[in-house]
Amino acid sequence: MLDIHKLMAALFAVFLFAGAAHSASYQGYVYEVSGDVQAAIGTAKPVKVEKNQNLGNNTTITTGANSTAVLKFIDGTVIALNQNTAFLIDKYEYNEKSPSTMSALFSILRGGLRALTGALSSRNRESFKLATPVATIGIRGTDFMVQMVNPGYLAVTQGLVSVTNGAGTATFGAGSTAVVPSFTTLATSIAAVPAGTFGTLPQMTLPPAVPGPVPVPGAAAAGTSAAGAAAGGITGGVAVGIGAAAIAVGAAAGGGSKNTTGTTGTK
Q1: At residue 85, what are phi and psi to the nearest 5 degrees?
Q2: Contacting residues for 74 by C-beta, under 8 A, at least 6 apart
């Protein structure tokens, strides 16, 4: 006979576990979203994302026309995406106890972004890299904007930015603007970028670059879990919790399962 008290206790324990595992496996999330914004892991079909959607490595986030997104990572790094932008989280790993192993490797495939760097770059200056079609950008603790409109444009608000490509490396400080014509042409300073180059990025209100955890399962907007599942694991931690919950429910309801191996296991 079903013991409701055992059932509730089992469910509570498993979702608590799932939340902890989920938070440990994801280090970035969608802080704010406006309009048509989608994400996909690897070559999976893109799905719409919502505020608080957790994001992992090898995830591409795209914004449509008149659409923007603000991403945040646990070290405090903030990435604001302009409209018509494709941004890839190649590899992000933050461990405050091991600065030498930390990395933030991102790519902008098209469009534009604004970046506010957090604790990761201050603890390991070589850890942050942003790849673009015309150069790789490194930072020294900064606030900067990039827009790929053939050529590429750069504006530095705070800190230092290095721009490296086939022609060498150029460094730009706060208040600088630069153009990068191609991968084989060195970035050079210009007086100003053409009006409207960065769209709404300069006016966007961004959160402070302060470290903080990603949202746990249950904090995301309605429909987020379904979107994550459809995308092949953007919120995979929730699916793990559901599988474990099924085992727990069976054990609580039937006094223990004789053979659950392989039926609801995680991948």
Answers
A1: -120, 145
A2: 27, 28, 94, 211, 212, 213, 214
User: 145 — phi, psi (to 5°)?
Assistant: -130, 145
**Whether residue 181 is found in the same domain as residue 118:** yes
CATH number of the domain at 167, please: 2.60.120.1440
pLDDT band at 101 (very low <50, low <70, confident <90, very high): confident
Instruction: Tell me which residue range forms the domain holding 176.
Output: 28-213
Does one domain contain both 39 and 165? yes
| Percentage with pLDDT > 70 across the chain | 72
Task: Give ∠ CA 215-267-10 in degrees, rounded to 5.
Answer: 60
Burial zone of 213 (CB within 10 Å; 0-12 exposed, 13-18 middle, 19+ buried): exposed
Pairing of strands 68-73, 28-34: antiparallel
Cis amide linkage into residue 151, ω under 30° from 0: yes
Tally of domains in the chain = 2
In the chain, DSSP finds a helix count (H) and a strand count (E) of 4, 17
Identify whether residues 91 and 208 lie together within a single domain.
Answer: yes
d(CA 154, CA 138): 12
What is d(CA 135, CA 91) in angstroms, rounded to the nearest whole number? Answer: 18
Both 57 and 173 in a single domain?
A: yes
Pair (110, 59) in one structural domain: yes
Residues 190-201: tens digit of each pLDDT: 999 999 999 999
Based on the fold, state whether residues 66 and 90 are members of the same structural domain.
yes
From the list 262, 264, 246, the residue with the least C-alpha distance to 254 is: 246
